[in-house]
């Protein structure tokens, strides 16, 4: 899929049959995709999954995976992932030149959002509410993360006595040894209930 704009739509996966674990909004994106003013809920894997393109060069070749390019999600809600498979996850999003702004992630236990693949990941002016064990995480040693001016508000399921209660982002290294990490600019983020992290996002937030 490429060169697509999806706007003003509502997606509710909702079904719970055991043979399916689908996203509410996903696909096999190549690039140039905009999601704008959508509401996405009740996914069985993630609510939203847009970060990589999978293909086979021919019938005998192995399945290859490449990052999607130019993915934008804005003014969109990702909420209430279903816990049918202990997998009430918000989103896996990313790729090369990806931007996510003015969105709401609410009432998902994890992946708020998960950073898929690698490349420049711009996450600005979003709201993340009521997570359980993960806010932003993922990427690898090739990632370049800009996490700027977002609002994090722990909710009823957030463990108030654990570090995840004030964590903004947890970068990952991928599958290499020794571990190496990409680069991250983390600034201007507000963590409700944690003035220390709000004042300095690197003081327990990243």
Molecular structure report:
This protein has 206 residues and is mainly beta. It has one domain (2-199). Helices cover 2% and strands 41% of the residues. It contains one helix and 21 strands. It has one helix at 195-199, and strands spanning 2-7, 10-12, 31-36, 39-41, 46-50, 52-55, 64-67, 69-74, 77-79, 89-94, 98-101, 104-106, 114-116, 120-124, 127-129, 136-138, 144-148, 151-153, 169-171, 183-187, 190-191. The strands form four sheets. It has a seven-stranded parallel sheet, with no helix packed on it. It has a seven-stranded parallel sheet with strand order 2-4-9-12-15-18-21.
What keywords describe this structure?
metal ion binding, Pectin_lyas_fold, glycoprotein, mainly beta, 1 helix, 7-stranded parallel β-sheet, 21 strands, single chain, 206 residues, 2% helix
Taking the sheet with the most strands, its summary is: 7 strands, parallel
Q: Could you give the order of strands across the largest sheet?
A: 1-3-8-11-14-17-20
User: Strand-and-helix sequence, N→C?
Assistant: EEEEEEEEEEEEEEEEEEEEEH
* DSSP strand content: 35-45%
Low-confidence stretches: none
- What is the number of E strands? 21
Distance between the termini: 34 Å
């Amino acid at each position: 899929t490429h060169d697509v704009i999806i706007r003003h739509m509502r997606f509710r996966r909702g079904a719970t049959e055991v043979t399916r674990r689908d996203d509410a909004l996903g696909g096999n994106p190549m690039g140039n995709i905009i999601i704008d003013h959508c509401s996405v809920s009740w996914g069985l894997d993630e609510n939203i999954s847009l970060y990589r393109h999978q293909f086979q060069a021919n019938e005998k070749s192995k399945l290859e995976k490449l990052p999607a390019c130019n993915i934008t999600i804005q003014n969109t809600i990702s909420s209430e992932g279903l816990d049918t498979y202990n997998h009430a996850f918000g989103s896996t999003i990313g790729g090369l030149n990806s931007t996510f702004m003015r969105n709401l992630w609410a009432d998902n236990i994890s992946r708020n959002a998960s950073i898929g693949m690698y490349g420049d990941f711009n996450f600005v002016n979003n709201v993340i509410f009521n997570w359980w064990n993960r806010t932003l995480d993922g990427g690898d040693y090739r990632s370049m993360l800009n996490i700027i001016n977002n609002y994090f508000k722990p909710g009823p399921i957030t463990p108030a006595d654990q570090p995840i209660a004030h964590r903004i982002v947890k970068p990952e290294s991928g599958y290499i040894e020794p571990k190496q990490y990409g680069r991250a600019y983390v600034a201007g983020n507000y963590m409700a209930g944690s003035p220390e992290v709000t004042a300095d996002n690197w003081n327990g937030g990243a």
